[in-house]
Amino acid sequence: MESDVDVVIPTFRRPEALAECLASLERQTLAPKSIEVVDDSESDLGLSATRNIGIRRGSGGIIAFLDDDCIASPNWIESIERAMVDPNLAAIEGGVTTTDTTGNIIPFEPPKRSRWNRFVGANIAIRRSVIEEIGGYDERYYLHREDTDIAWRILDWGGVIAWRPECLIHHPTPIGSTSKGKLAAFPRSEQLLYRCNPTKYVECAAANISVRSVMGRDLFQFMGDLRTSHSPGDVPPLTRGESISLWTRAWLLAVKWKIFQTLRIEHSGSN
Q: On the CB side of 115, how many CA atoms lie within 13 Å of its CA?
């Protein structure tokens, strides 16, 4: 039995990982309608462009996006199709497990406090009709934040994105390891996301505020990066006024989160 789910997998010079990814799709309880592997190793177009190529190649009513270094659970396709029976859903974000620095498999779940800064492109499924309506992925995003951008555009369009942890994949490499611990390792993408929606971006900025980022001065490097022009120079850096406005609101939100966290801890301790 075949599903109505196309799987799009961009890949870039990771043949061993891709082989394991494809093997996991061969073990599915319900076969995908198609598997569109887009090899970007030579053209180096970037994630958004390669995903759009994969979208155009398929014909399924649902498009599931999977990174080339991820392993799909055996019922991944079946779970996606079951979730998308709900006609009110434009898209779903699925569950992800990853590996911590000690080798343990742990869940990687979006913070409950996050409304906007939560979307992981390694495991998201979108209706074809919706993705065609909003124009696909924004190809100005070469790498990073293209998943957040498309989710925001779906929400702004009026679509509903549901969290469905049962649509599970495993991301063997610790998530965020490519950034080598640096906040906003791709600052141009952060600037572009800010330009697309400064209000929603406040939550993204606030998520980077912590004792560690302040004491280690990583936060101040990040703030400076947002005010600096980055190649190819097509995204305007934040002005001084924009930066002050953004970080004032981000600090207020971060303090609010901390107060709520403290109150929850005190409440749970009293019970």
A: 8
What the block records as the tokens of 33 is: 């309608």
Minimal CA–CA distance to 61: which of 107, 115, 2?
A: 2
Domain end, chosen from 115, 149, 178, is at 178
Task: State the average pLDDT over residues 161-168.
Answer: 95
The answer to whether residue 268 scores a pLDDT higher than 90 is no
On the question of pLDDT at 179 being above 90, the answer is no
**Full residue range of the structural domain in which residue 228 is found:** 180-270
Same domain, 115 and 58: yes
Give the pLDDT score at 245: 98
* Boundary (domain end) residue, out of 152, 178, 204: 178
Placement of tokens 């498999």 in the chain = 105
For CA atoms 86, 122, 32, 99, the dihedral sign is negative
Rounded CA-CA distance 254/257 in Å is: 5
